[in-house]
Write a structure and sequence with these properties.
The chain is mainly α. The protein has six helices and two strands, in the order H-H-H-H-H-E-E-H. It is elongated and about 70 Å long. The termini are far apart.
Length: 153
């Protein structure tokens, strides 16, 4: 394998992987983010009293998300962590991973479609169009630099 593909995991990431591996062997595998943060509070410094109300925006939850990405990108760990909004996180089975890939692909395609629409709008800037006096007779995709005001309206 290429050296840049194999990035070393830190202790926190290894603890998360081993925790999820244990959950997959002992339970059904699904663990909610809050349970992971509580069980691994030594690694994520999660405080149930203060951080629970702001679960997805605090530093601990952001670290957890980053760690899941790093484990999935790592060449040494061969398992894939799947995520579900209602169920939580787990090491995925073949069916769960395939479903996760489908959802990720759909998300990428939606983003690509929106990107294409914005690029087309930018390309059309300044072109004349037939509007029958209901709208502007030319396309204006950008605002002027005059404090965000448009003088052509």
């Amino acid at each position: 394998m290429k050296e840049q593909f194999i990035k070393k995991l830190n202790n926190r990431q290894w603890a998360l992987y081993l925790y999820l591996k244990y959950q997959a062997e002992e339970n059904n595998g699904w663990k909610k983010r809050i349970d992971i943060l509580r069980d691994l509070s030594g690694h994520y410094r999660f405080n149930m009293d203060t951080d629970k109300k702001d679960l997805y925006y605090n530093k601990s939850a952001q670290l957890l998300t980053r760690d899941v990405r790093e484990i999935n990108k790592n060449g040494i760990i061969q398992k894939i962590i799947v995520s579900d909004a209602q169920k939580g996180l787990k090491l995925g089975t073949q069916e769960e991973v395939e479903l996760s890939f489908e959802r990720e692909l759909m998300s990428i395609l939606k983003k690509l479609k929106n990107y294409h629409i914005k690029v087309q709008k930018a390309k059309d800037n300044g072109q004349v169009r037939l509007t029958f006096d209901l709208e502007r007779d030319y396309i204006e995709a950008f605002i002027n630099d005059n404090n965000g005001e448009n003088n052509n309206e």
